[in-house]
Write a structure and sequence with these properties.
The chain is an alpha/beta fold. Helices cover 48% and strands 13% of the residues. It has a 7-stranded mixed β-sheet, with helices on both faces. A two-stranded antiparallel ribbon has the order 5-9. Helix 1 (24-27) links the parallel strand 1 and strand 2 (31-35). The chain starts with a strand and ends in an 11-residue tail after the last helix.
Length: 338
């Protein structure tokens, strides 16, 4: 029996404009959009009207469809969920073939966030959910699942799944956490994947752009509908995570300054060593000149002593008349002739 497949998205509360999918026709499977807007039309999506699970909470109602799907999807054995801001770049059937090879549920890792705890910090900092609720979730997770907070988070813009009990159980746990805690599903995804025991495959995928998709595409999103009013919250683990990043940045700056100081000290030490070598060479040359001077002085003293000895000798005295004659100028004492 051939595998029945579908692509689906959910658009509730007029949050954004529906984006058509250029690859819908070549994918050969239905593209289904669940919405509460009876006026919504599309050339590429099959529009299906639904009643929001929580009429006064459109965000969690959308998450219900995203995470647990809709009962009308039970006829499909494999589905590909995409956020409305995701544009597929190749056949959805090819993506399902690739993503579900060897797993029942496949999702991409977050490509620009390192830890789940960092997601908590960003949600609070950007005002995407109530800070007290987010920090309560963080406190509970830090007590129950501390290791999961240090895992790589997932980017849930695309979800590929195969119908199975484990997948359904995992999705139910995930949505329970979205109801109990933050509506931002990336905060509870890793915990749900761990507790549900789903056969999970986590892809390394550039969230912004890949051969399979582009994100985010322009959807005229009403961003204010996705945020909550800002309020001050206690300095809990999210604040600790922010402090860790600031400390790391300060440490990196200090390391850079230390490296520069070490380089300057090394240069200074080289110059000092060179100067000390030159001084030592000059001192050694001076010592050598002084030694030569001492030798010459001794030789001169010895010469003078020998000269004095010679002058005081009997032979010197006896030959004095001869030396006087020899020293007399020529012609002196000769008689003049006429």
């Amino acid at each position: 029996m051939p595998t029945k497949r579908a692509v689906y998205t959910a658009l509730l509360g007029g949050y954004e404009r529906l984006n058509d999918q250029a690859v819908a026709e070549e994918s050969g499977i239905p593209f289904i959009c669940f919405t509460d807007d009876p006026e919504l039309k599309s050339d590429t999506w099959e529009i299906r009207l639904v009643e929001p699970l929580l009429p006064l909470d459109m965000v969690r109602s959308q998450r219900d469809l995203k995470i647990r799907g809709h009962e009308s999807l039970d006829e499909f054995s494999e589905t590909l969920y995409i956020d409305n801001s995701v544009a597929l770049k190749r056949s959805a059937s090819d993506i399902l073939d690739e993503w579900l090879g060897g797993s029942d549920f496949t999702v991409a890792h977050h490509s620009y966030r390192d830890r789940v705890i960092d997601e908590f910090d960003e949600v609070v900092a950007l005002g995407y959910d109530d800070g007290a609720r987010v920090n309560e979730q963080l406190i509970h997770y830090s007590e129950l699942y501390p290791d999961i907070l240090l895992e790589r988070p997932h980017w849930n813009g695309i979800l590929a799944r195969r119908q199975s009990q484990a997948v359904n159980r995992t999705m139910d746990i995930w949505f329970d956490h979205v109801l109990r805690y933050s509506r931002r599903d990336q905060l509870s995804a890793n915990v749900a994947f761990s507790l549900g025991g789903v056969q999970l495959r986590s892809l390394e995928l550039d969230n912004w752009l890949s051969p399979s998709h582009a994100w985010p595409v322009e959807a005229q999103r009403k961003a204010h509908l996705g945020k909550v009013s800002r309020r001050k919250v206690g300095p809990l683990l999210a604040e600790v995570a922010r402090a860790e990043r600031e400390t790391a940045a300060a440490r990196a700056s200090l390391d850079e300054l230390t490296a520069k100081a070490d380089e300057a000290n090394a240069h200074h030490a080289t110059q000092v060593s060179k100067f000390e070598t030159e001084v030592a060479n000059a001192r050694r040359a001076a010592e050598e000149e002084r030694s030569r001077g001492d030798v010459l002085e001794k030789e001169l003293i010895e010469y003078i002593r020998q000269l004095e000895d010679l002058r005081n000798s009997a032979s010197w005295k006896m030959t004095a008349p001869i030396r006087r004659v020899l020293q007399r100028p020529r012609g002196l004492g000769k008689e003049k002739t006429h």
